[in-house]
Amino acid sequence: MPRRRLHLSLAVAAALTLGGALAATLAVSVAVGRLESGKVALAFQQRAGVRVAAIHQGLDEAVEVLTVTNQLFGAVQPVTRDQFHDFTTPLLARYPFIQAFNFHRRVGAAERVSVEAELAAIVPGVRITEMVGGHRSVAPARAFYSIVDYLEPMAGNEAAFGLDVAPNTRVMAALERATVSGRAASTDLISLAQDTRSNGGFQVIMPVYRAGAPLATAAQRRAARVGDTAAIIRAGALVQKILDGGKLQTDPSVQMWVYVGARADPARLVYASAGAPAAPPPALAGSRLERWLAPDTRISVQHTRDIAGQPWHVIVGQAERALLPDHIGSLSCLLGGILFSLLMTAFVQTLVQRSRRVQRLVNERTADLKLSNQRLIDDVAARGRAEHALQLSEQRFRQLVAMSSDWYWEQDAELRFVNITGGIDEKGGMPPERLIGRTRWEAVEGMQASAWGQAHIAQVMAHEPFEDLEYATRDDFGELRWFCVNGEPLFDERGNFSGYRGTGTDITARKLTEQRIGHIAQHDVLTGLPNRSLLQDRLAEAVAYSARSARPVWVMLVDLDRFKFVNDSMGHKAGDVLLMTIAARLRSALRDTDTVARLSGDEFVVILAEHDDEQLAPDIVQRLMDAIAQPVILGTKEFFVTCSIGVAVHPPNGAASDSLIEHADIAMYRAKKLGRNNFQFYTPAMNEEAMERVRIESALRNALERNEFVLHYQPQVNLASGQIVGMEALIRWQHPELGVVAPSRFISVAEETGLIVPIGAWVMRTACRQNKQWQDAGLGALRVAVNLSARQFAAPDLLADITGVLEQTGLAAACLEIELTESLFMSDVTTAVEVLHGMKSLGVNLSIDDFGTGYSSLSYLSRFPIDVLKIDRSFVSDIASDASDAAIVASIIALAHNLKLSVIAEGVETAEQLDYLRRHGCDEMQGYYFSRPLAADHFEHLLRQRACLPPDPAAGAVRAA
To answer: pTM of the entire structure?
Structure first.
C-alpha cells in the first residue's frame, strides 16, 4: 500500500512538472511572438511616420513658399515682371514640385483692351481666356476678370498666361477663405490649363492688397484686394518629388495612397505607390496560428491634416509578409521548450525518489535550527535598525549644519570668546582667531563709545539674554560687514554665572538691499537724480531755510526743447543718453548744496538757495542754459539741445512750497510760448494766462460736438482777369459764453493737445462740401484752400483721409488746395518729399503759406511738388514804402515763375500794393482791398453778384499784341 502511494505521488509530480514546463513554454513563445510582431509593427510605423511627415513638410513648404512670394507684393509697390522673375526663379529651383508661380491681377471691364495689349506684347496673340469643358476659349465680357498676369516659368505653362480664373468657383472660394482668414488657402483639385489631365492639380493662394488700405476687417480686405499670388502644383508630382527627394520609395514593403480630402475617396486619389493596388486592401484575418502568434499581420497607418484649409488624407500600408521570417524566435522557443519540458520531467522523477529518503532527516534538523535561526534573525534586525537610526541622525545633523547660515559662539564668565564653530570665516568673512580671547566690544571698533554699544554692555553685565543685536564692522579685506547676534547667559548647577552662548548671522546682503531700495525709492533710475518724493523733502528744507535766514529760494523748472524730435529720430536709447548727459551738466553747473531733480520725462527741477558767498541772479539761469546748449554726440550725429526755464521765487511770490513748482511750470510754458530757448520769472499775470488756457482747452474739447465752429471764406482773385478763382477757408469759433474766439487764442492750444487733428479734418470736409454745393449751383469751378497743421501732416493716414473727404463730398481733387508752412516739413525733408508726392498723386494742389518767413532751402524747394507760393502779408504791407520788402516780393515772384509756380500775395489792402503786384507779374491776391473773410451765405452772395476787380490793362495790352 505505501509503495502504491509512492508511485502515485511520483506520477503526479512528473505530470505537474511536464504541464508547468509546457505552459511556460507556450507563454514564452506567445510573448516572444508578440514582441516580434510589435517590433515589426514599430519598425513599420517609424517608416510610415517618416513618409507622412515628409509629405506634410512638403505641403507646408509649398504654403510657406507662397507666403514668402506674397510678401514681395507687400514690401514692394509695384512689383515688376523682372522682379517677380528674379524672386521666383531660385524658389522654383529649390522646390521642384511647384509647377509655376503666378500673379492673378484683378482687371475691370474697361481695362480689358489695354491689358490684352500688354499681354500680347509679352506673348503675341494672347487674349483673356477661360477654361470651358477642359479647353481654353476667349472669355466673354463681364464686370471684372482675375487673369494670370505674371507667370514663372513661362516655358511649359504658356497655356495659363492670360487665363481668367474668376469663373472657377474653386479658385475663388479659396481666395475668399484666404481673404477672411488672412492666411494662404488651398483650392480643391482643379484642372490645370497646362495639363491635359482632369483635376490633376491645385493652387495655393494668398490675396494682394492695395498699398496703404485698411485691412482690419474682412470687408476692408475684400475692398482692398487688387489680385492674388498663387503657386500651381500638380498633386501627384508633388507627392512623388517629396518622396524621391527623401529617397523614401526604395522600400517595396511600404505602400502609400494619398488623397486630397478628408477620407479615402478613389475619385480623389492623387498618388499610389508603384506596384500597390488601386485602393488599400482590407486587413486580413490570418490563420489561427497567425492570430495566436502575431495577431497584427497586416498593418496600416492613416493620417489626415489640414493644409491651407484643404484636408489631405495619407494611408501607409505594409505589404503582405511571410510568417516564418518574422517569427523564428518564437518558433525556436516553442521547440526548445518542449524538449526542455521532457528533460525536466525525467529529472523530477529521479529527484522525487531521493527527496523521500532525505525528508525525514531534514524535518528533524529543521526543528532544531528553526528556534536558533529565529533568535539570530531578531538580533541582527535589531542591530541593523539601531545602526540605520544612528546614520540618519548623523546625516540630518550634518545637513543642518551645512545649510544653516548661522555660526555658534561661547563666552566665558569674563565675556571673552572661547569657542566659535559653524564656519564664521566662510559665512561672515571673519577668522575665529580675531575674536578668541577678546570681548565683543574689544573686537568691534567704536562699540564702547556708541550708545547702542554701551546699552549692550550694560545688558550682558546684568547677565540678561539678548536677541537681534545688529552691528557693523570691517573684515580682514576692509569691507564693511553687518552681523546679527543672539545670546543667552549660562549658569552652573550652583547658579553661578559661567558665560554666554549664542548664534550669529551675516546680514550684509540684507542691509545692502535695504540701502538700495531706499535709494531707488527716492532717486530716478535713469539719471540718479532725486525723484519727486525726495524733491518734496528738499523743497520743504529749502523753504524752511528761507524762513529762518530771510534769504530767497529759487525754484526752476527746466524743460528740454524738441526732446521728442530726438526720441522720434534717434530712438529712446538715444533719448536716455541725452537725459543722462543733461543731468550730469546740471549737476556740474551748480553748487553741491543746490538740488537738481528729475520731475518727469524731459523736465528737471532745480532748487537754489542764496548764501553769503553767492547772490542769486539771472546770470545763474543763463549759465545753466549755456551748459545745456553745448553739443551732444548721439551715435554719429551732433545735436544742439536748448531748454526753456521757468523760475519761481520764494518768498517774494508769497506762495506755499507746494505751489512753487506749479508757478515755475507756468513760467516755463510762458518761455516756450515766447519762442523757446529763454527763461521767464513767474508773475501773477502768468497764472491768469494759464487759467485762460485751461478754460480755452476745456471749451475746445466740446466745440466740435456742439457745432460751435464755422468757416469764413476770403476770395482769391486773378490779377490779370480780376475774377474770383478761389477762396481760403478760415475757421471761426463762436462760443456761447466766450463769444467769438480769435484763432490766435485757440489754434496753439489745439496744436498742443492734439485737438487740431479732428478740427482740421472738420475744416477740410466742410470746406470741400461747401465748394461742391457752390459748383452744383453753377457758381463756377472754384478752388478752395485749406491749411494743414503739423500734426495732420505727420499722421500716417493723411492720404487716406484726404481721399475719403474727396470721395464723400464728390469734389474734384483739382478744386482742393492744401496750404503748408515752410517749417512744417523742414525737420525731415526726405519723409516730407514722400508725403508731398503722395498728396500730389491724388490730384490736389499744394501751396507754401507765409513763404519767406521760414528757413527753407531753395534746393529743397525745387524737390517739392509745389504748385503755389503765398507771399506773407509782412512783406506785402510795406512794398509801396519799403524798398527792401519790395525787392523781396519781386524776387519771390521771379523765383516762383522760374520754378513754374503760381504766386498769391496775402494781405493786399491798398491800390498801391495791388498796382505793384500787377506790375511784377503776381498771379493772384487776397486781402481786405477786395474783401475780408465772409460767412458762407455772404460769400455766396458775392459770387452771385459776380464781383471782380478791374482787369489788368497791361495784361490786356499783352494779349492784344
So the answer is: 0.42
